[in-house]
Amino acid sequence: MKVRWLGKTEALILTTDKIYDVISIERGWYRVIDGSGEDYLYPPEVFEIVEEDNKIKKSYGSIT
Fold first, then answer.
1. Global confidence as pTM
2. What single string gives the DSSP state of each residue in 30-60?
3. Tens digits of per-residue pLDDT, 4-18?
4. How far apart are CA 34 and CA 6, in angstroms?
5. What is the largest CA-CA distance in the chain?
6. How many domains does the chain have?
7. pLDDT bucket at 23, cuts 50 / 70 / 90
8. CATH code for the domain in which residue 24 is found
9. Is residue 62 part of a domain?
10. How far apart are CA 60 and CA 58, in angstroms?
11. What is the DSSP letter of 61?
12. Which residues face 20 on adjacent strands?
């Protein structure tokens, strides 16, 4: 799934209007690789879905 960051650019980690790949969904949060090259969980309400992907890995465990 591809999503667009809707927030303001934050210290070059997430860039406004940039499209990111969601590598998994964990307890409803999106795991994306940000500008630092690391993957982190972000709340879905700060993104717009631009491309659906039914093959994405979903986890319902705890957020860490």
1. 0.75
2. EEEE-TTS-EEEE-GGGEEEEE--TT-EEE-
3. 998 877 666 888 889
4. 14
5. 31
6. 1
7. very high
8. 2.30.30.40
9. no
10. 7
11. S
12. 3
CA angle centred on 29, ends 50 and 14, rounded to 5°: 60
Torsions phi, psi for 6 (to 5 deg): -100, -10
Determine the structural domain holding residue 39 and report its residue range: 2-55
Give the chain's end-to-end CA distance (angstroms, integer): 21
pLDDT digit string, tens, across residues 37-64: 999 999 999 999 999 876 666 665 555 5
For 53, residues 6+ apart whose C-beta sits below 8 A from its C-beta are 1, 2, 22
Neighbours of 20 (CB within 10 A): 20
- Segment 13-33 mean pLDDT: 92
